[in-house]
UniProtKB/TrEMBL annotation:
Protein name: Carbohydrate ABC transporter permease
UniProt keywords, alphabetically: Cell membrane, Membrane, Transmembrane, Transmembrane helix, Transport
The family this protein is said to belong to: Belongs to the binding-protein-dependent transport system permease family.
Organism: Mycolicibacterium arenosum
Subcellular localization, as worded in the UniProt entry: Cell membrane
Chief subcellular location: membrane
SUPFAM superfamilies: MetI-like
InterPro entries for this protein: MetI-like (IPR000515), MetI-like_sf (IPR035906)
Length: 279
């Protein structure tokens, strides 16, 4: 009888859960689908017919228009900024996270929690001080102005790595010390191999946040030289009289690399969640 009730319960929960998940998936994916359809629709058809109508015929004119508008340079700048910030974030966050997790020094915990407390400060509050610092240093509208505020780690990244590093067994680190390994050897040959899933997750989070960063690039740069994707996409709405087919093409170009990255690294993210939960 118990098994029968359990089977009925599983069936009932499946009847409720799976349709709900399907509805959620549709609500999430439909805007992306409409954006893709709009990007291959001619501006004339979009302005004269329903936005839900299929493109007849599909066209790549909007993507060629992006090339003529210099969108390719914004794509290269964004990729370069994202790569530099991601490498810097991982490097400095790993070093700081290990120091806070494994090294003993006076005021370690106080300093750590004071640093983590800066997560409570809204990012917009820091825009004006950062702008003044960059302007005084003569870095306004430069590549370094885009990366310096983010390249030296972040409270979230250091907190995440510190908590993960504390779960690594002490016996592994002691064994490395006995074999004559110094601190850097322990980090590169013991800690990092054991932390690959969480590092991949942190890298993906950093890439997404920097790829979609809008406020700081908008404030610190001007002109086309160091314009990033988000600013370039926003500029299309005013420069080309809100041609939404062009804007949707730009949005599609910006989204595709992130989707591809998630498809490639998705299994590592799931693994990091499972490992973190078990530990």
């Amino acid at each position: 009888m118990t098994s029968y009730k359990r089977a009925i319960g599983c069936i009932a929960s499946g009847v409720v859960i799976y349709p709900a998940l399907l509805v959620g998936a549709v609500v999430t994916l439909v805007p992306f689908g409409l954006g893709l359809l709009t990007s291959i629709t001619s501006a004339r058809q979009f302005n004269t017919e329903s936005p839900l109508s299929l493109p007849t015929p599909p066209t790549l004119a909007n993507y060629f228009g992006l090339a003529e508008a210099g969108f390719g340079r914004a794509l290269v700048v964004t990729a370069l900024v994202t790569a530099v910030v991601t490498v810097g974030q991982l490097t400095f966050s790993v070093l700081a996270g290990y120091a806070f997790a494994r090294l003993e020094f006076r005021g370690r915990d106080t300093l750590f929690w004071l640093y983590v407390a800066t997560l409570m400060v809204p990012a917009t509050v820091m825009v004006v001080p950062l702008y003044l610092m960059m302007a005084e240093a003569g870095l306004r509208n430069t590549f370094w102005a885009l990366v310096l505020p983010f390249v030296f780690g972040s409270p979230y990244a250091i907190f995440l790595l510190r908590e993960y590093f504390r779960t690594i067994p002490d016996d592994l680190i002691r064994a490395a010390r006995i074999d004559g390994a110094n601190t850097m050897d322990v980090i590169f040959h013991v800690v990092l191999p054991a932390s690959r899933p969480i590092l991949v997750t942190l890298a993906l989070i950093t890439v997404v946040s920097q790829w979609n960063n809008f406020m700081w690039p908008l404030v610190i740069t001007s002109g086309d030289t160091w314009r990033v994707l988000t600013v370039a996409t926003a500029g299309l709405q005013s420069r080309y009289d809100a041609q939404w087919t062009l804007v949707m093409a730009a949005t599609t170009v910006a989204i595709v690399p992130l989707i591809g990255l998630f498809v490639v690294l998705g299994r590592h993210i799931v693994r990091s969640i499972i490992v973190t939960g078990l530990k």
